[in-house]
UniProtKB/TrEMBL annotation:
Keywords: Calcium, Glycoprotein, Hydrolase, Metal-binding, Signal. Residues 1-28 form the signal peptide. The lineage of its organism: Eukaryota, Metazoa, Ecdysozoa, Arthropoda, Hexapoda. This is Arylsulfatase B. GO terms for molecular function: metal ion binding; sulfuric ester hydrolase activity. Pfam families: Sulfatase. Its cofactor is Ca(2+). It comes from Drosophila rhopaloa.
Length: 587
């Protein structure tokens, strides 16, 4: 009798749940209420390579219009390298807490973002989102169950490695004795059909197709993860459509000119992607986040002639040039729009922030490092002080840490090769259109799509100047004075970014006690780090020669994938609900 009562009660509860689920689906005449989330991730673009930070050399009117109408993220921090940066976005955790703190996944290395991590697409999918990755993954593919569609994305169109050729989509590992291989897929199937299409255009078309065909009763979660402006293969690194490169005759260096063409194509893509959201009635309920995964590599490995100037260093270095990233957030759901944010934000924050904005409840046990900044961004609140570990790589042996405006650097990468101020632009290479910069932005496609929201040339001028970093020298201070010089390979250094954002005045000898405090804090953080997950082995079984000329998983062992367990749970739950409802209705 009691057992029967329990069943009846459970049945009632489940019945109500089912009814409310049906009601919530029907709500809004089939339109989802959760906001669509589109993350436009750019690869290896420098802070000084969008025009909203003040450069007149390469104009990016569409990207700029997005920033001026939304929030221009002026203190946006990221890990200094591709794989760690992408792992951070998708987990909401520092690389030291996922094992991704050391280096990138080289094509033939058998490791990945550990499977125990639950990723943003998986969490959003559970909340009803349809989830898509277009473009780069770079979080491991040596086993099939590590690839994007096995890790929370309903759909993937793109590549697994760090870069591909922009046109034939092959990866050629010149330092190994491997065949060239195609690294381009639609879900799990190789996709040679796109051969010949410039990567930025191929990804943009796919993003448009996804938006057009999207079931509007569900919210959309899409990461549009561009190849641009990373280099292609070493034998042909700089690739851009000729008509785009031709727009930059004012740039003399041919490499930088091609880079400008890559940026220009990307700027067009941003307009097309936002246009598709508009045309499909989705824009007014969307959140668009755009940023570069890390600073530009001006020189050295994969150098693309990008510029982080006047910030120090570049990609894969401990300096601001490697970890400050150009970024913008746009949404009609933001209460305050059209301002420059000086809130320090880190890529760890996007998972809780976007979940907060979308009302996606996150499991308690995720152990996120990031915080939900949506309320403070939306309200344009006074910036909160933040503590951030930027780099802690005990294999290469360097660290970079920030407590509010105080910064600590110990050790460096590549023997200090990237410790300089790199990528200063020629002074006489302004785009002639920059004379009417404000008008140029107001005439952009993105401005037209977003509609006039009261943005004026004056407002543009003001926001742009707030977001332009100048580091003029103060009278009586000489950065060449030996006491200010930082050689982090010899001794750890200490900067005050509030006064010295360009990291020219090492205060270590002046404030040894504060320096030691920061060093102690890094030691505390080090205790929370887990070992690097990297497996630095060249596994020749990855050679595309063994995989029909494709880059493909080369180990077919499947570990008990959490996705499988999860859908089994779901199935059991659904069956038990059906059983109980049946019992409730017919017994
Ligand atoms: C490179 O490939 C060639 C042709 O398959 C083979 O003969 C040679 O032994 C390989 N060399 C190395 C170092 O693996
Ligand atoms: C791509 O097309 C080019 C030109 O037609 C051809 O030479 C190349 O083999 C193709 N590559 C792939 C991976 O299909
Ligand atoms: C968004 O636009 C669509 C199509 O134009 C319209 O049906 C819907 O009511 C709008 N929603 C909001 C929240 O403004
Ligand atoms: C600074 O670097 C030295 C040399 O690599 C290392 O022994 C020390 O632990 C580092 N300190 C911190 C706080 O990272
Ligand atoms: C595949 O990977 C598993 C570990 O995930 C390992 O135990 C096994 O030896 C690997 N098999 C091959 C053929 O490399």
């Amino acid at each position: 009798m009691e057992v029967l009562n329990l069943f009846t009660m459970l049945g009632t509860i489940h019945g109500l749940l089912v009814v409310s689920a049906i009601l919530s689906l029907a709500n809004g005449s089939g339109h989802s209420t959760k906001p669509n989330i589109v993350i436009i991730l750019i690869d290896d673009m420098g802070m000084n390579d969008v025009s909203f930070h003040g450069s007149n050399q390469i104009l990016t009117p569409n990207i700029d219009a997005l920033a001026y109408n939304g929030i221009l993220l002026n203190k946006h921090y990221v890990p200094n390298l591709c794989t760690p940066s992408r792992a951070t976005l998708l987990t909401g955790k520092y690389p030291i807490h996922t094992g991704m703190q050391h280096f990138v996944i080289i094509t033939d290395e058998p490791w990945s973002l550990p499977q125990r991590e639950r990723l943003m697409p998986e969490l959003f999918r559970e909340a009803g989102y349809s989830t898509h990755l277009v473009g780069k993954w770079h979080l491991g593919f040596w086993r099939k169950d590590l690839t994007p569609t096995m890790r929370g994305f309903d759909h993937h169109f793109g590549y697994y490695n760090g870069y591909i050729d922009y046109y034939d989509h092959e990866v050629r590992m010149l330092d190994r004795n491997y065949s060239a291989g195609l690294d381009f897929r639609r879900d799990l199937e190789p996709c040679p059909e796109a051969n010949g299409t410039y990567a930025t255009e191929a990804f943009t078309s796919e993003a448009k197709r996804i938006i057009e065909q999207h079931d509007k009763s569900k919210p959309l979660f899409m990461v549009l993860s561009h190849l641009a402006v990373h280099t292609g293969n070493e034998d042909n690194p700089m690739q851009a459509p000729e008509e785009e490169v031709a727009k930059f005759p004012h740039i003399k260096d041919p490499k930088r000119r091609t880079y400008a063409g890559m940026i220009s194509s990307l700027d067009k893509s941003v307009a097309q992607t936002i246009g598709a959201l508009k045309d499909n009635g989705m824009l007014n309920n969307s959140i668009i986040l755009l940023y570069s995964d890390n600073g530009a590599p001006t020189v050295g490995i994969h150098s693309n002639a990008g510029s982080n100037f006047p910030y120090r260093g570049q990609k894969e270095s401990p300096w601001e040039g490697g970890i400050r990233s150009a970024g913008a957030l746009w949404s009609p759901l933001l209460k305050e729009q059209g301002y420059v944010s000086n809130q320090a934000i880190h890529a760890i924050d996007w998972l809780p922030t976007l979940a907060g904005a979308a009302g996606v409840s996150l499991p308690q046990d995720l152990q996120l490092d990031g915080i939900n900044l949506w309320p403070s961004l939306s309200g344009n609140e006074e910036p909160k002080p933040r503590t951030m570990i930027h780099v802690l790589d005990d294999v290469f042996g360097y660290s970079s840490y920030m407590r509010d405006s105080l910064k600590y650097v110990n050790g460096s990468s590549f023997n200090g090769q990237y410790d300089q101020w790199l990528g200063e632009l020629e002074s006489n290479e302004d785009d002639p259109l920059s004379e009417k910069y404000g008008q140029h932005v107001l005439a952009s496609e993105v401005q037209r799509i977003l509609g006039n929201r009261g943005l004026t040339e004056d407002r543009i001028r003001q926001m742009r100047s707030e977001a332009t970093q100048e580091c003029p020298l103060v009278e009586g201070q000489d950065p060449q004075d030996p006491k200010f010089i930082c050689d982090p390979l010899k001794a750890h250094c200490f900067f005050d970014l509030a006064k010295d954002p360009c990291e020219r005045f090492n205060l270590a000898t002046l404030y040894p006690r504060q320096l030691q405090e920061l060093a102690d804090e890094v030691e505390q953080i080090r205790r929370t780090a887990i070992p690097s997950a990297r497996v630095p082995i060249s596994d020749s079984r990855a050679d595309p020669a063994y995989h029909n000329g494709n880059w493909e998983w080369w180990n077919n062992t499947e570990t008990g994938s959490s996705a499988g367990t999860c859908s089994l749970h779901l199935l059991t739950m659904i069956l038990s609900i059906i059983g109980l409802v049946y019992r409730y209705c017919f017994e």
